[in-house]
Amino acid sequence: VELDESNFAAEVGAVPGLAVVEFYAPWCRTCRSVAPVFAREVRRMGAEARYERVRFFKVNFKENPRLAMRERVFALPAVHFY
What we know:
CATH architecture: 3-Layer(aba) Sandwich
CATH class: Alpha Beta
InterPro entries: Thioredoxin-like_sf (IPR036249), Thioredoxin_domain (IPR013766)
Radius of gyration: 13 Å
Distance between the termini: 15 Å
Largest sheet: 4 strands, mixed
CATH topology: Glutaredoxin
Pfam families: Thioredoxin (PF00085)
Protein name: Thioredoxin domain-containing protein
Family: Belongs to the thioredoxin family.
């Protein structure tokens, strides 16, 4: 699920367990190389019942720079756990 400033707090706050948020940018070469690994783990964990309280999100750094700075993202890619 893609997040932005308008839905970040509501979506992350509504998670009953762990919210995992990946901050990325389309121009980031490392982000593009990490993306398939992140997607594979999201699919794997989504298929297992023991991870039902974990939700995964993405934030585009380029489109949401104020949100990224507020969440103290200074390097990409970044994965935050809430």
